[in-house]
Amino acid sequence: MHLPLLFPSFPAATPPVPVKMADKPVPVVEKRLMDVKLGELPRWVAGRNLTPNGLVAGVFGAYDRYYNKYINVKKGGIGGVAMFLFGYVAISYVWSYEHLKHDRWRKYH
Amino acid sequence: MTLSLFNQFLSPSLMWTPLAAIALALPWALFPRQTARWVNNRLLSLQSWFLGQFTQQIFLPINNPGHKWALLLASLMLFLITLNTTGLLPYTFTPTTQLSMNMGFAIPLWLATVILGLWTQPTQALGHLLPEGTPTPLIPVLIIIETISLFIRPIALGVRLTANLTAGHLLIQLISSATSVLLSILPAVATFTITLLFLLTLLEVAVAMIQAYVFVLLLSLYLQENV
């Protein structure tokens, strides 16, 4: 099957390849968090449902996604719970940083 | 100087949210809800097994009307054991080191058992104030003593849990700060303190679980007397 010579730059030996279209641009707000670029982050956060109901739904949704990905699996290991607890330790550190930063250069503890 | 030892028991706030709120919400996240499936994931199976064993053990000596307390005591046990053990992780906040919270658990639950006993079987509940076979001259004194011991129960429950956990955390902080200071001065002594710290941490893990169990066990004993 021969295409008409619309693209004369193509070598004759290669099979005819249709021109690819780029992926349609998606509005920033509808992207998943992992696909959002850092510069677009404030716009993404502003576009989400920030009502109390929306926030609660967001928390529960995140919990459900984590649970179904790491814990509710056939042969879940300690990794799911361990990651969660490590995140809890990290959050506790962030929460107590204001208090902890004074200990760093103190001479007598 | 002495003030800084107890600073670890303050709950730091960020954006008007105390860390205690996150610490109190953690047990909810760690224990998934039961499903209707026959075979669940490993965490849920482990949890069901533990709850079954625990509830059977605790409610063995309690008669049938007392079994209504199974949900309350089992959830209390899970809550306390999670708070205690996750409090041993670095930088975390342990809500059970706060006397206010432990008294908040102890007093209402103890009072509930006492009121239950006085309401359903007042004679027997009051009869507990005098052990059988008491010599007659001792009766008045013993009734006073037993009443005092009855009223001291909630205080003992709350303070036991608070004191054990607070003391454990304090010891860990003291020995670890001693170790970090000694590492630069006398490394040989520091190895001794490191071993001590390791053993202490093991002890604290055990104490965390045992204290939660003792709290719930004593409540079940008070329930057994009164129901």
Summarize the helices and strands and which ones pair or pack:
The complex is a heterodimer of chains A (109) and B (227).
Chain A: H1 41-47, H2 52-71, H3 79-95, H4 97-100
Chain B: H1 2-5, E1 13-14, E2 17-18, H2 19-30, H3 42-59, H4 70-86, H5 99-120, H6 122-127, H7 139-185, H8 187-226
Antiparallel strand pairs in B: 1-2
Keywords:
heterodimer, A: 109 residues, mainly alpha, 4 helices, B: 227 residues, two-stranded antiparallel sheet, 8 helices
Q: Using DSSP, what is the number of strands of chain B?
A: 2
Query: With helices defined by DSSP (H or I, 4 residues minimum), what is the helix count of chain A?
Result: 4
Order of SSEs of chain A, N→C? Answer: HHHH
Report the helical percentage of chain A.
40-55%
The number of strands of chain A is 0
User: Number of domains in the coordinates of chain B?
Assistant: 1
Count of helices of chain B?
Answer: 8
Q: By helix and strand content of chain B, what is the structural category? A: mainly alpha
Q: Mind describing the biggest β-sheet of chain A? A: none
Summary, kept brief:
Chain A has 109 residues and is mainly α. Among the domains of chain A are: 26-72, no CATH class; 77-103.
